Amino acid sequence: MSSAPAESMWMTDELRLYRASVRQFIAKEFAPNQARWREQHRPDPEAWTAAGRAGLLLPDVPEAYGGGGGTFASEAVVLEELADAGVPFGSNVQSIVAHYILAYGSEAQKQAWLPGMARGESVGAIGMTEPAAGSDLLGIKTTARRDGDHYVINGSKTFIGNGTHASLVCLAVKTNPAISGPRALSLIVVETKDLPGYSVGRTLEKVGRHGQDTCELFFDEVRVPTSNLLGLGEGRGFSQMVANLPYERISVGVGAVATTERAVALTVKHVKERVAFGKPLMELQNTRFKLAECTTEAHVGRVFVDDCIRRFLAGQLDPVTAAMAKYWLTDLQCRVIDECVQLHGGYGYMTEYPIARMWTDSRVERIYAGANEIMKEVIGASL
After folding, report:
1. Is residue 5 assigned to a domain?
2. Which residues contact 152 (CB under 8 A, 6 or more apart)?
3. Domain limits at 178?
């Protein structure tokens, strides 16, 4: 019996064709450039427009706005193929920003912003995390005060993926700092090109995911039209973020499972080829037992995430289940990959080997999109 993961229940013939085209594009355009992207700590700007031409960006946004016209299953295919190739590309952030615009933007905002994002001409970033506010969104300090038909924004954001190339930042701000609680927050889309007072800070040195840019953003009396507010009136930002979190968290879960499966496959191949004490490592009982555990856990993770995808496609994925998926699947990812590194021995610690890069790249999954401890709070509060 093969240990390869079974095909997901949500796959269709159309999605199989799409997967083949996505895989071919990544192998040709992204994979050969990974060493250079890691060295420069960001993808090439041209990677975005190339991905747009290939249909990798906004595959689950309606065609009327330039997207692929598919469902979240199309987005899941892209996430899985990027994970399988070991490419940390920020297309998932692009999709998350797009879905804020799709859900809460006016028709004029959708027409103005989404087509360019789908083509890769506009790169989106999410400006929520601040130096003193991560998972605690109510603790942000960035403000936006009204001045006629503009907001004047002051503050800073950190750990911003896609920040280097971002031309659209979905920014969480306090539009009414005098109010405490959720009603103080709003979401404003900031168009960054040639914008006075807006600046991109240093590229942050991360433990892993070196090929994807992460940086600081600064706002000093930045003027943005009030028409860039998302939603019907101020004070809706917190509820908008909460409502959109299942999309972000199931996206993280999809990548976590695909990465886990890839780690197991790479390790099975390694222990069959690596000889120690006169025989392949696979012939040692400890190796077989450890891989039996890892394979089983990866399979359980696949069944769970596929069920979450099915629920999401049916409009039935609740925030609590999404929190379960995010926390449990990323914990699983880190646990299994750590076992796989151990089975690689010294080679598992060498960054020229994919398993070592997967190990460092995966650790952040338990932190971003809401730390796993926060996920447990969400789940616990529902009991």
Report:
1. no
2. 144, 145, 146, 221, 222, 223
3. 124-235
pTM: 0.93
| 143 and 108 housed in the same domain | no
Residue 38 CB neighbours (<10 A) = 17
Query: Mean pLDDT of all residues in the chain?
Result: 94
Choose, from 248, 283, 297, 377, the residue flagged as catalytic: 248
Percent helix, percent strand, percent coil in the chain, to nearest 5: 55, 15, 30
Residue 249 lies in a domain: yes
How many residues are there in the chain?
383
CATH assignment at residue 140: 2.40.110.10
In this predicted model, what pLDDT tens digit does every residue of 68-127 receive, in sequence order? Answer: 999 999 999 999 999 999 999 989 999 999 999 999 999 999 999 999 999 999 999 999
Backbone angles phi, psi at 200, to 5 degrees: -100, 125
Q: Is residue 248 among the annotated active site residues?
A: yes
**Rounded CA separation 137/128 (Å):** 7
Residue 245: pLDDT band (50, 70, 90) is: confident
Point out the domain boundary residue: 119, 150, 165.
119
